[in-house]
Specification:
Elements: H1 4-16, H2 19-26, H3 30-44, E1 49-52, E2 55-58, H4 60-84, E3 88-93, H5 94-100, H6 102-112, E4 116-121, H7 123-131, E5 137-140, E6 149-163, E7 184-186, H8 194-202, E8 210-212, H9 218-226, E9 231-235, H10 240-245, E10 249-251, E11 259-267, H11 275-283
Parallel strand pairs: 3-4, 3-5, 7-8, 7-9
Antiparallel strand pairs: 1-2, 5-11, 6-9, 6-10, 6-11
Length: about 290
């Protein structure tokens, strides 16, 4: 029988691209990592990894084993959660976990009596966590289709332009997309699908915008906007407190509908009656299917 610990170590080496990098992720000595992989290769009777150009990559046999290894670890984690009644392991992208999830999560905990372990990170990192079996369910702003996962509509969230209270737009009820030209448009976290949405809705205008990236997250963007560094496009729910306090002004675009259609992702083989399925049924809302990011 394959050893799950050895299988997890193999996946860590593949995902990290090396034995030393994997040792930092799983908190094991490099010698232990080598020992685990060696024992797994002995169990399977073949070589799984090879060093190439300073990195470690799967052999053809290792590449064939890779999806099976992921499925094995994911199934074991699902079995643990279902049989032991353990907590729902939920991963959420930064904006969703910070601004949109806390109320429905509290409602789910109260109504279902189920503990939830939540992990919040970047959109790509959330999907990786789900893919590696470290989460039962993920909620993301942007997704890529996969045969292994179901994608269900969650919340439709409008994007708004935010400006400082003394900005020339602050007295307006809305602005037109063309008025963004000449403004410094501040960008936060990468990989959220905002750029794709802008290209879909604004077309060639996007190439003429003056964008300033590198702020990392929405909180940093909001502070920069308040300081007069520029303006930005953010989820409406992320600035509710600032708008109520009068420290920021939020404006819709009058001539373009900018709406994020967030998704709940879970494995297709997630059992009926599991905490992940119950969360999906309780919290999702019907919305049109959006294009992948």
């Amino acid at each position: 029988m394959l050893n799950l610990l050895h299988t997890r170590t193999f996946l860590a080496v593949v995902d990290a691209g090396g034995f030393r990098a994997a040792s930092r992720i799983v908190d094991l000595a490099p010698s232990t990592i080598l020992d685990h992989v060696g024992q797994l290769e002995a169990e399977l009777g073949t070589s799984l990894l090879v060093r190439r150009r300073g990195s470690v990559q799967p052999t053809p046999q290792g590449a064939a084993f890779l999806p099976l290894a992921r499925a094995l670890v994911a199934t074991a984690e699902q079995a643990r959660a279902v049989v032991s009644g353990g907590p729902l392991r939920l991963a959420a992208s930064s904006n969703i976990g910070t601004y949109m999830l806390q109320s429905p999560l509290a409602d789910f905990r109260r109504s279902e009596g189920t503990d939830v372990d939540i992990w919040i990170g970047s959109n790509p990192a959330v999907f990786d966590r789900l893919n590696q079996g470290a989460a039962d369910l993920a909620i993301v702003e942007c997704w890529q289709p996969s045969e292994d996962f179901e994608a269900h509509d969650w919340r439709r969230e409008r994007l708004v332009v935010i400006v400082a209270p003394w900005h020339r737009f602050a007295v307006r009820e809305s602005i037109r997309a063309e008025e963004l030209l000449g403004e410094r448009l501040l960008g936060g976290e990468r990989g959220t699908g905002t750029g794709t949405l802008l290209r879909q809705r604004l077309g060639s205008l996007v190439s003429r915008l003056t964008t300033v990236d590198g702020f990392g997250n929405t909180e940093a963007v909001k502070r920069a906007v308040r300081a007069g560094v520029g303006i930005s496009l953010v989820m409406a729910s992320s600035v509710m407190d600032e708008v109520a306090a009068g420290t920021l002004v939020a404006l819709p675009l009058a001539d373009a509908e900018l709406v994020k259609e967030t998704k709940i992702l879970l494995r297709r083989d997630m059992p009926k009656g599991s905490a992940a399925r119950r969360f999906l049924d309780r919290t999702r809302e019907t919305a049109p299917i959006s294009a992948p990011c």
